[in-house]
Amino acid sequence: MSDDKLERERKLKDLLVRLTDSPFYKRKLADYNLMNIGLKQISTLPITVKGELRKAGALDHLAVDRKEAVHYCESFGTSGEPASAWFTKEDLETGIRQIKGCGVRFDKEDIVLLRFPHGLTATAFLMQQTCLQVGATIIPEYSTVTPYPKVLDLMNRLNVTIIAGSPREIELLAETARLLGLNSSEHFSSLRAIIVTGEVVGKRRKEHLKQKWGVPIIDIYGTAETANIAAMCEHGMMHVLEQDVVVEALKEDGSGLVKPGERGLAAITTLSHQASPLLRYLNEDVISVEQGLCACGQTESKLVHYGRLKDRIRFGEIVLDDKDIQDAIYSLAPVPDAWKAMQQENGFHMILDSERYADWSLEGIQVQLSEMLKVTVTAEIGFGTLLNRDELARNVASKRQVYICKRDNEDPDISSFILLRDLLRRGYNEFMSCKYEKAQQLFEEAVALSPHSAEAHAWLAAVYGRKIDAAWSLTEKIELFSMLENEITTALEIDPTLPLARRMNGSKLLNTPDMLGGDPAVAINEFRYCIDQGMNDVEIWVSLAECYMKTDDPVKAIEALKAALALEPMHERAAQLLQQAKKRKHL
């Protein structure tokens, strides 16, 4: 047995002892004999799932005295307890060592601009500590309110050599450079490498980024709970950090490993982590792992990250992960500046945004994407449909990009889908009975169960709208309005075609003062869209009429109110507005 394998066996033994210092794992492993477990027997031990960690809470997972933990982070979650991770000083040193070993090879001559949000993940902190340790200069530009032109100015004036950020941030920086008349691959002559993490970066996307900037793109793969799992070498191969983690690619039913190179669910065992170690942690990612020779000389396994299991889409026997869709999109010429793929019954509808959209052939794009994805693809192309380029030059906080919109009924867990529909049905009944507290509880459960359900977010927004009407204090109204706005934004990002989300957006635009972003003229378009999609209740016609009254069009207001009264002849509000509209018409 090689020295490396002996060292990994030793670390596993140490880990199994250390796990019993965690209250969570002490209970979980109580019935297991850990004495004779080695790397070959690790598959006999239980899998850890995210739900268990969330239920256990932050402190129950801790395997060292709390005073030994010097850094804390947690995964992003929409509700409930997040999955937590603690770091000792030794854990931080491990993370720094891993980053130093990636293909960038930091040195003291580097000037590194960090474009990661400095939130509850370890990425920005570890990157900063790595720079400090090697003596590199740090520009800790992780504020989301710093405009992109300022970032580019910093890069130019300070001769930045390395940028570290999410792939989307790097793309937006390149687009901003173009808007300013700069060629990002030529203007920043000191730049020598870009580090990306946080999203799937397939081969074609990496090639696109490299072409945009003219420097190598180095990807680091990890999660908040596990920290770093794999890092890319200078030859573009993602290597598992086998000195510190064991990575298994499991079958979807958990019955065993997939064959080398096949896609499976990632199960991560953190050999080196001291504070909050993990055993066979199913992080809900789809990966493949296989041995392969690499020109860099490393012998560690090659890893490919395909995306999140919850984002996987199935059309019969065809299974598509985030990377598959991304590879197809980034094969287009030109590559879109922004894109969204919306799942349809038998394929996708793609929205593609590019300043060079005139170079595309719509028919050609649809054929190319359909052939690559093996499903029917329709598309719409244009400029400014998804990306507001004016915002790139303003202090607009960046948001996590939603690229792929799944149909709610395509959730791979059919039991979860059934539960979601039941929660929405029950919530709707409570909402229609004016029991808004109970309706809110049910819709919040629906959002927690299925964060990518636009319908759940839209109904939660509807509840907040009714509670705003009933609130007495200005403070409560302001707080509820912020929550309503967030749910509407989320619903529209997930599915901009959902009539309920468009209706809630119309109501917000109608009822918000102009100085705070209200716009009755735009609200008209939202309500008309909903009516065209089949909504035909009295309230939507009344809302449309109110928009016409606010935009000084009493004739159209009268038409809308007549439609409302045809549905409900005794509707008091519609009758009052009709009299007002008629008077205004004759003024």
UniProtKB/TrEMBL annotation:
Keyword Protein biosynthesis: no
Pfam families tied to this protein: AMP-binding (PF00501), TPR_19 (PF14559)
Top-rank lineage group of the source organism: Bacteria
InterPro entries hit by this protein: AMP-dep_synth/lig_dom (IPR000873), ANL_N_sf (IPR042099), TPR-like_helical_dom_sf (IPR011990), TPR_rpt (IPR019734)
Domain AMP-dependent synthetase/ligase per the UniProt entry, residue ranges: 77-232
Keyword Magnesium: no
UniProt keyword terms in alphabetical order: TPR repeat
Ranges occupied by TPR repeats: 420-453, 538-571
Transmembrane segments: none
Record protein name field: Tetratricopeptide repeat protein
Annotated source species: Metabacillus arenae
